[in-house]
Amino acid sequence: MRFERMITAVDVHACGEPGRVITAGLPHVPGDTMFAKLEHLRHHEDWLRRLMLREPRGYPALCCNVLLPPTVPGAHAGYVIMEQVEYPPMSGSNTICVVTALIETGLVRVTEPVTELLLETPAGLVAITAAVRDGRCESVTFRNVPAFAEHLGATIEVPQLGTVTVDVAWGGMWYVLAEAARFGFALTPDEGADITRVTEMLKAAAREQLPVAHPENPEIRDVTIGQLYGPPHAATSTRRNAVTVSSGAFDWDRPATWTGVLDRSPCGTGTCAAMAVLHARGQLRLGEDFVHESILGTVFTGRLVEETAVGGRRAVVPTITGTGWITGFAQYVVDPTDPFPEGFTVGDLWA
What we know:
Blueprint: E1 5-14, E2 17-24, H1 34-44, H2 47-53, E3 63-68, E4 77-82, H3 92-104, E5 114-121, E6 124-133, E7 136-143, E8 148-158, E9 162-170, E10 174-179, H4 192-209, E11 213-214, E12 217-221, E13 225-230, E14 239-246, E15 260-262, H5 268-280, E16 290-293, E17 299-310, E18 313-322, E19 324-334
């Protein structure tokens, strides 16, 4: 049998969040930087995102990562992240999935008990320290790009919800953050549908009323992801959160489009954004552990390691520690007679 395409991938999850890692089967992706490669994929090769993330090869909660040669000397690998409606510049759970795949499949030189890597993301370089034993990547710590708070205690007007106080921060993506108690949420899995609906509404309002752009790359703009937070459920944790990743377009006049899925992990860039907000308020010190719970009760441990500046803004450099697990290896193919060469979506799960 002949196939039009055959793509090799490793399926991984980081504390619950699935992040498929494409290791082979793609044509050359041009670009002088990893962000330029992201832009090429977005504008010229978006069939790949649709193929891998839509049914029958994908599902709404799935993310995907494209391993690419780095453009920066000294970097061990580069990667572009693909989600259901965007190409995020950075993602913590996806970074953990990428590192786990690189180490456990032997795609990089591995040393035990510690392997150090430098990875190139569209948001910048990310330094990795991985704990490895008997070939198993037991934990991944990455030093993220600087994070900072852009709006603290801002108010937005949200149809059906009224006036809501929020923060907007950069943690590798632009986040709107709000207290879960404002909406009566305890942040448990059974609340998932209501959490995603409310968070999608907050995101849409924040995009309209609190425009943002990264000072060093104005192409990275607008709130695209949202986080509700509240008290931890475990005594050993600092905070619990639920991050909603959009899975469809949003239209105020069409409630059926208010679709998103919960990040199953504690969310790496969301943890960085939350820490940046807390530090800006004087509520989190440098070197202090911030143990962040997911909707599943899994945790990432964050820490702010230094202060810096980004485009004249006070910023902090965060680290995140978490663990990934490989769940499978696959070769995804496209039969030339397949009526859905780029996958499909159905209204029971998708907008």
